[in-house]
Amino acid sequence: MKPIRLFLALGTTVLASSAISRAQATPAPLGVTYAGWKGEYNNADRRLATFKEIGFRIVSFVPTYGYSGHNKIDLRSGPDVVELAKAVEAATRMGFAVVLKPHLDPLLYSPGFEGLRSENDSWRVYCPWRGFFDVDPMSDDYRDGVVFASLRAAKTAIDSLGAAPVVPIRLELGAELMNSVVYAPERWVELLAAAKKERHRLGLDQAVVLSHNFTHHFEILDDFVGRMSPAGKAALKRYIRGLDALALSQYMDLTAAMPTAERGTRLPTVDEIAQALVLHEKNFRRQILVGALGLRPTQIPPLHIGEYGIGRGGLRHPNLWADAPTPVEEKDLDREIARGHEGLVRYLALPDGRTAQSVVLWVTGPHYDIFGWGNQKYAIPEAAAAIRAGLH
Questions:
Q1: Phi and psi (nearest 5°) for 257?
Q2: Residues 319, 321, 327, 329: is their CA dihedral positive or negative?
Q3: Over the range 101-124, which residues count as b (16 or more CB within 10 Å of their CB) and which as e?
Q4: Which residue in 13, 31, 2 sits closest to 357, CA to CA?
Q5: Which of 94, 95, 92 is closest to 161 using CA atoms?
Q6: Distance between terminal CA atoms of the chain?
Q7: Residue 34: pLDDT over 60
Q8: Neighbouring-strand partners of residue 73
Q9: Of 12, 84, 188, 390, which has the fewest beta carbons less than 10 angstroms from its beta carbon?
């Protein structure tokens, strides 16, 4: 069976079992996030060369756009089709598999925005996290300006290349838009249908797979599916069944596989971190996808980890943002972060238990930026060394 068909794995029993067997037989490929506002992909070659030297096999482009009002997106704040297409083309020519994962961020974070001088009073401008955004995915700005524009960028890149990539581009229709999915899952079903129609119109059926990157809160019943009505759950089930792939931002507790009495008294071993990732993956399938949503195992699309990193909360709370640690706390945290990346490398190579077909590192901001690309003072050499060693 050709690799492209393994990647597509559209949900039949044979393809699903083959994909899992393949994931277990070989280490999962590791990728890296490349986030950018407008203009930040114009000189992508240098950054891509760095990724290549380290040994990453996937580049996840995260074109970022400011959410400026109810169903209003400042599309000028993010990369346009031409800029994004050139970056995708460059990455493909260098041999990377490509993920497109458009992000909405509060307009506050966009370069040059001055809140005190702004005449925009919407709470959305200052909302700290996209998961709270109330965007309708079928609104013109999101459907046409973000999703369809991403498809056009993929089309432009492929036309310039002269052929479709060996591994299809994975387009994340949504990224961490938790409340948008919880409150209006039927609109995501409509978006998926519209995206498939547009993909076909552009001749990209074999070149682009459609996915959705859910926040890790999707793994917590009370945070996500538990808030949905029966009709909403049924719509979300239809949406997931229709996807070509499924991704998670994996920020669950990395000490979960330790003996309960030993948690908090020592660092988990590398194997315990790997097993924590397996545990969360199994629980997600059993408790959420099968238990809460009623999906059959053969209806679950191939799984990817769309984000992985460890922030201020360390191994127990990888996604926590908090006050800066003291110098002593920083040293302890650096050791935790390094151990967490060692555990990820072990997880990637597991022959049994892991079904995630790829993992992408989140490398933006304090503690996540282990290579120091955005700010050298954020670098964590031991964590970066663990990733380099695992890739080589």
A1: -95, 0
A2: negative
A3: bbbbbbbbebeebeeeeeebeeeb
A4: 31
A5: 92
A6: 27
A7: yes
A8: 67
A9: 12
Instruction: Give me the long-range contacts of 1-9 (CB less than 8 A, separation at least 24).
Output: 3/166, 3/167, 4/166, 4/167, 4/168, 4/206, 7/167, 7/168, 7/209, 7/302, 7/357, 8/168, 8/209, 8/244, 9/244, 9/245, 9/301, 9/302
Between CA 210 and CA 217 the distance in angstroms is 21
Kindly report the length of the chain: 392
User: Helices 327-348 and 270-283, interaxial angle, to 10°?
Assistant: 70
Strand locations in 199-302 (E): 208-214, 246-250
Rg (CA), the chain: 20
Encode pLDDT of 170-220 as tens digits. Answer: 999 999 999 999 999 999 999 999 999 999 999 999 999 999 999 999 999
Structure tokens at 382: 């031991």
Instruction: Retrieve residue 7's tokens.
Output: 């990647």
One-letter identity of residue 115: G
Amino acid found at 188: W
Kindly list the distances between the CA atom of residue 19 and the CA atoms of 15, 26, 61, 109, 275, in Å, as whole numbers in the listed order.
6, 11, 24, 39, 20
Burial-class residue 388 by CB neighbours within 10 Å (0-12, 13-18, 19+): middle
Inter-axis angle of helices 44-54 and 81-93, nearest 10: 30
Tokens linked to 229? 């009505």
In sequence order, the 6+-apart residues with CB closer than 8 A to the CB of 105 are 64, 65, 66, 67, 130
Which of helix, strand or coil describes residue 142? helix
Q: CB–CB of 192/243 below 8 Å?
A: yes
- Per residue in 52-80, is it b (16+ CB within 10 Å) or e — as a string? eeeebbbbbbbbbbbbbeebbbbbebbbb
Of 151, 156, 251, the C-alpha closest to 199 is 151
pLDDT in tens, 331-372: 999 999 999 999 999 999 999 999 999 999 999 999 999 999
Q: Which two tokens stand for residue 32?
A: 């890296």
Q: How far apart are CA 63 and CA 61, in angstroms?
A: 6
CATH topology of domain 3-391: TIM Barrel (3.20.20)
Which candidate, 75, 195, 35, 64, places its Cα nearest to that of 130?
64
Residues 6+ apart with CB under 8 A from 267: 315, 335, 336, 339
